[in-house]
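Q: Protein A?
A:
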Amino acid sequence: MTEPTPDLLNGLSAAEARDRQALEGFNELPRAPRASPLHAALDVLREPMFALLVAAAVLYALIGELGEALLLFGFATVSVSIAIVQRGRSERALEALRGLATPRALVLRDGVRVRIPGREVVRGDLLILAEGDRIPADGVIVAGDHLEVDESVLTGESVAVRKQVARRLPAAMAAPSSGEPCQVFGGTLVVRGSSLAVVMATGSASAMGAIGHSLATLDVAVPRLQGEIRRLVFVFGFAALVACTLVVTLWGLVRGAWVDALLGGIALGMALLPEEFPLVLTVFTVMGAWRLSRSRVLTRRAAVIETLGAATVLCTDKTGTLTRNMMSLAHVEAQGETWDAQRPPEVIARSAALSAVLETATLASDDHRIDPMERALGEAWDRVGETRPRGQLLREYPLRTGLLAVTRVWRRDAGHGATAHLVAAKGAPESIARLCRLDEAATARQQARVEALAANGMRVLAVARAVAREPLPDSPLQFEFRYLGLVGFRDPLRESVPAAVAECRAAGIRVVMITGDFPATARAIAAQAGIDGGGATVTGTELESLDDAALARRVRDAAVFARIAPAQKLRIVEALKANGETVAMTGDGVNDAPALKAAHIGIAMGGRGTDVAREAASIVLVDDDFGSIVRGIRGGRRIYDNLRKALGYICAIHVPIAGLALLPVLMGWPLMLTPMLIALLELIIDPACSVVLEAEPEEEDVMRRPPRARDSALLSPALLGWCLLQGVAAFAAVAAVQFAAMRAALPLDAVRTQVFLALAGVNLALIFVNRAYAASLRAAFSRPNRILWWGLGIVFVMLASLLAMPGLRRFFALTGVDAGGLALILAAPAGLLVLLEILKRFWRSRLEA
């Protein structure tokens, strides 16, 4: 279908885009269908805990206890349902993350440039393509030049393809292998230049859709954590197998009651198996990534969550991260004349010298004004009121390493039918000085003026002009430039930055600013942000003169790096890593990708960043705000803390359950905890560790602690010791209740009832103990967590129903409880809670290490 000639000034309207999206669907490739509830159920059926439940149910059925058998099958069904619900919740969170993770596209809608998710691009949209962009859909080039595209993902050809403007829109897109120079394809990468392209095909209708290859996937694996969890599950599982075998053998041989021996062995196996570990890891990492995304921090690789809390150095760029990236023209100077933002723009119009500087800087800028400084220049030139025609652009000499200046050549009418080529250049003052061949004295005067402006936090560019004849030279250095003057820009600091930097300092995280800006400007912004600039500023020139060992020594105290080329960021990252630092690095350009990949935590800009940078990074800032980085670190520390608390709680609660399963063997007592009662307890334990503790808020001192070691174990020796202490204390409390009930010569069902309720109460006490590292009864109950209180309400209703309904009591071999028994039951968790909160005061420093 041939599109009408696109409106290069306005693009589609929002209404047109909505209509086309409703008609043709989203710009996304078909993906594998989500796992069905049946698949989730089958996964659960393979779990050892489910096998134990089924084995116990079969055993009860064989001995004629059909009620108990059906109830255990019911518990098994509930376990499957809980797993399916949790998996569905995780899948929904992953879907939200996938939506954020899709490449972004800059389009023209209603005459305004807007950045939208790539999946929202529609046929007929006008794409603004720039270096580093991942092209979101198939289209045709309608404006621009010097565009080169890497199409290797489609054609296998590693050489970038040069593109050109189409004379007219084709009736249909050609195949990628055709080499059509005016067409671009979704999924390919812009490696150089900028252009406008009208979208011709999206989604399944695109070339990538025809191949059916998905480019972007969300990595939800957590290799180190998964390995650690698997080792723990193996150790616990092996211990459970050995213990079950010994219990069954000893009980059967000593007492001759092999059915009771099998039930006791199954109960012990259920008590020892930590089947909650994988569930907790999945829920915490997926839901943690989803929670971070709500703070405008997208984790593309969930494994980074374990690294966030370990960051010791945060390397950040200046423009757009520390500052607003909202440049405004603040200063123009030429031949002794100056203008600043406090004066009206008409002052520039009345001065030939100032007007020449502003006009030349505007002519050296891209027509589409994507760059904030170029946009500020264009807006200022529009306000001056000049309507002089720009002429015809003949050639552009872009920025390059060693010459940080842009030069553009224009054909302009010189009157009387004659034409002249005007050459406009703007860029780094030292590069413009080189183009103009300034002598030492003139360069020193320029340098002094630049230093003065930069010390006030301005970003400074120099401007030069030349006249040229054809043929045009291959290098801008061959023009005879005349130096015109300077332009200065202000980019205000984000209001959240000073507080965020102070928060990093309190958390033991050193903030390092790396910028391509002038050293004096970098120091001024660093001072406003509160970044410690005590060490001398390191420039790109100095960095080039240092070998790796010297650079590693230099970065130990340097906090400001200026005039740094993107490729030099990688050396800074490697030097910091050589010093044993855990490095977080921000970046947005194509050349930032190696540094983002090398850093322990690569952070790409979601707004202005290139797709290459986003794909290399493990985190994407949706709003490009430095404060979001700090929120991400705080969130990462909270997730890791809560994960350790949940695993500690699981280990602790399994100790009294296992102890009660072993007591009958060791003491010759009757079996108290049947498989049915343990299954009932699991209905409390699973939601507590996977949902309740995941929703816990962060510790008050979470950003006042030093970073943890990157390779620290989830279950450290200190945490395992604390878990064992909790578990032994909980077991002692419940065993005391059992001993007291048996000493009072209560019937077996009454003893079992008191033991079970005491164990349920102790379980709740352990939840409160593990809510926080801080030792405080008040904090244990006052910390906000609505899910906890909803869960407690459900537990109380469930236990009350169990005791109030005679039929249920008979099923579980329980009975009612008198006032004395109730007091004893309540005393066990209350005493345990007070004791552990006291002991926590002496253990806390080890837990947070």
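Q: Protein B?
A:
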Amino acid sequence: MTFALPRGTSIKPALDWLRSRGWRAFPFQRRSWQAYLDGHDLLIHSATGSGKTLAAWMGPVIESLAYQKRPQPLSAIWVTPLRALATDTTQALQEIIVQLRSPWQLQSRTGDTSSHLKKKQLTRLPQALVTTPESLTILQTYPEFLTACSNLQVVIVDEWHELLGTKRGVLLELALSRLRTLSPELRTIGLSATLGNLEQALDVLVGTAAKRPRTIIHGLSKKRLWIRSVLPESVERFPWAGHLGTRLASKVCEAIDQAKSTLVFTNTRNQTELWYQELLKTRPDYAGQIALHHGSLDTDVRTWVEQSLRDEKLKAVVCTSSLDLGVDFTVVEQVVQVGSPKGIARLLQRAGRSGHQPKAASQLLFVPTNVLELIELSAARKMLRRGILEHREPERLPLDLLTQHLVTRGIAQPYKRDEILRELRSTYTFADLTDVQLEGCIQFAKNGGHCLERYDEFRRLEEDSNGQLQITSPKTIQRHRASIGTIVAESSISVRYLKGAKLGSVEEMFISRLLPGDKFLFAGKLLELVALHHSIAWVRRAIGTPNAVPRWMGGRIPLSSQLSQGIRERIEDASNNIFEGKEMRAVRPVLQLQQQWSHLPAQNELLIEQVHTREGYQLYVYPFEGRLVHEGLAAIVAYRLSKSRKITFSLAANDYGFLLHSRIDPMVSEAQVCSCFRLEGLLEDILAGLNATEMAKRQFREIARIAGLIHVGFPGEQRSSRHLQASSDLIYDVFTNYDPENLLLNQAKQEVLRRQLEWDRLQKTMTRIASHPIIWRTPKRPTPLGFALLVDRLRERVSSETLAERVRAMQMQLENAARSLAT
């Protein structure tokens, strides 16, 4: 299909403008403009800071210049994943409009836009709108907006890799399917910098019903990138997680002094606060010259930091992923990454925040928080040279979001089943939607399903005698608009004694994994979980030792499967005495001692170590598959071993392996442990080994919130977390008892497997282990690879003030043993 543009239309206006500024278009930009003018859907994949914005926006601008008339209202929509980026994006697009004297009027609309401007926009929509997936969905509940959509020529989706594989991405898919119904000639452009599955990403973006040509434009995939590491002056042969980073603060300060401006990335908000204080402690003169930036800070504070960075008033900003995407800070000369980013694409994305200009080089300084993270950086380098990036697997059939969409869809206009089914099946995510699934979601939207139909609060979607579905209640419309979206905040669980005294609260993710009888440390006390009821963890004082490892959401990002593969390759290199690059040479003493005391596994081997110490009996297993997979594996192995003998294991897991610890001799043989990795009965055993019911109940809260079965309240009057949890738990119990095949209930169980346990990856890991040889070793003491797992157990039993001292004593004992053996 080719658009009927005026004869002679070309990209010449864009080339003339660039030439007037002393610039020259990259080939991928020229190809993008021409493909757009030829009527193609596009996915532009190019390195961060290489000119993707220009490649996407110039096509519509050239087209409007060719017609020599003002575009119609709402001719273009630019979707950004973060509302914080809307202002920056609007400024960048507006500059192009002004420079080319194009007749476009451009505005932004996000959750930060004033209510006055929102009302004004509905009566007089701009020619181009910068918005987010949530705001775009809310706009589709207004008839005025839908009327203007007949003019829509193009939707541009920025940072598509961040939305793909998430429910926010599905929310956008559904919005796009509606826009394509209203404007059949609509073209779609996606922008991405770090994706491995480009063909699939384009399929998801344009849907299954698109008939126009589609093109992937490959841009500058190999932008100049300089990565260097801060190496510790001495390498501990028994490393443990997290302790090393701030010791290197002085070297980070030296790097900051050598650049005009620096972004210091950490992986968590707590680390951001810690590093900001550490830099000020190291260099008090930095006061007023550095700032911090993360998602929990007020919008005005974040805006001030961003503008101060642009105005060259700050030497450095310590930040999380809040500055990971899209924001164009040309002044930033280097990036510091504290700790392993755990993914190849994330490393590349963050490095691209520096040198954010087409011809500039990106510079990244890596600061390990554990010397073993140097292996991860080396593995990432190797994968980057091979052009390997992580895939983003699309979501399939999230029925909670479909239920929300059915209500959204019925606010502005009525619809019939066959109409909405065609629209839904035009999306990648709902291409396989069945009539039964659609009807089930319609019933949820109408009255909450047969279990809840007697309650008025669940009645939203109305059906008339002609089978048309719509919403007419003003209260329902107002309530639904306030609930649109997929972002659900993490909730906490209250911890109380059986007699009622409250100890505090912990995150749901931790407590939902515990079974009654499990012991854990909290508030300086050893507690036994008695019951988890109505979002309260009822406990009593206990004696003995803890047998559960606490986990907090966001604390640790698991390794990607591609980076895991790279690490296994680097470990195998080390087993063959190959240490490529200064990072691997720096960690050489650690790996050589591991080889001497135990073994360095090849890619096709699984190493298992059985160690007996004064602390008890330990079983270390090293699949190198990431923390989430290892937590699932640990639960499976512990459960299967405990079936043959009554025994209690405490578990610890990190990205390299997992540890089973018992106070008494488990008396297991190599053959028994090896048999625990069988695929037969895997699902049943992992659900039995973990508190699957509580995990599913927790996941159901998110699903119930998105589906509209519970309401968070209007802005400024949100309901308490405890109230929402109780409401969700009650609905979960009703469905479990009276509708066990409920679609949303089944979705919760599937999401537990897929998200919390990485089920697909877990199965692949088990298959890999089952087909490879297992190397069994019985070292006399914990080895370098196992030391970090041992420290994770110590965190349960010693305070943070004494942990470092205790670990140091253990390190000295092991170092002395290593020196004695060497002599």
